[in-house]
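<context>
A single protein, sequence plus fold
<entry> Chain with its tokenised backbone below
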Amino acid sequence: MYGEIALFSGTANPKLAQEISHSLGVPLAKADVFKFSNNNIFCRLHQSVRSKDVFIIQPIAVSYDEQGRMSSANDNLMELLIMIDTVKRDSGGRITAVVPYYGYGRTDKKDQPRVPITARLVADLVSTAGADRFLTIDLHAGQIQGFFNIPVDEVTAFYLLSDHMRAKKIENGVVVAGDIGATKRARNFAQALDMPLAIIEKRRIQRKDGSDAEALNVIGDVAGKDCIIYDDEIDTAGTMVQAVHFLKGSEAADIYACASHSVFSDPAVKRLTESPIREVAVTNTIALPPEKTFDKLTILSVAPLLGEVIRRVHLGISVGELFNE
């Protein structure tokens, strides 16, 4: 049996960490985490964590401090590893890396010659640094769990997002997969909302002049219907906005978008704000600076979910049963 919970936050998403702390009823433990003038990261704990059950909250994503200075995903990954090592060397009883967004998760297979599988490399780094468990939300690919040699709890924002859309009481709706790769995820979302599924298919066609072009086709009925595009993340929003314009051209009514992770790499915000989309619903797994928020954006908090999962891990209660209740 481990000691009491010690909850730490890295610098990537301190607001989420504070919300988790409030939801869990456990104060954040204090630590100094900063960069030296040579850009090296340093961590110093304010208290002993010997034999405690330690949870370190740190998404692997781009972040911004209060002065608007950016830290890259690489910075935040390194910060996570250093914090894990710090706790390990202070004889923490068990160390759980709480990584709401798993950066490098899209590089999960060797799909062309001479490329890495970085999702596996990051898993090895987290384990080698000293983490005993890993907690995350909606991995890009489920098989990434198998890259770890430590227990992994992958929880989902699926129910948070589906409840949000269900509350809108859309009567003539259809869930749309923005491409073939998102079909399974969108099918489950459609089932949860008791709506039909449509799929946008992309294919390369060759023109008579020998050049290639991309053609879109929709499998399913969207004309006159409110469409909900569901995916695990929005990065540059290229696929998302292309789907929105295609659906509008197919006589769809209102269009909504849902995603667990708001990566919002440039020019995502510009594309989304200028598109005819009605609402973009995401969670706060990634901290967004003010300039990346906009009127159409709704941000749902995963803090209660992560707080409950941390409580269950600490007490040795099943995490899976949380989604069966």
Observations:
- The domain at 5-157+303-323 is CATH 3.40.50.2020 (Rossmann fold).
- Residues 73-89 form the longest helix (17 residues).
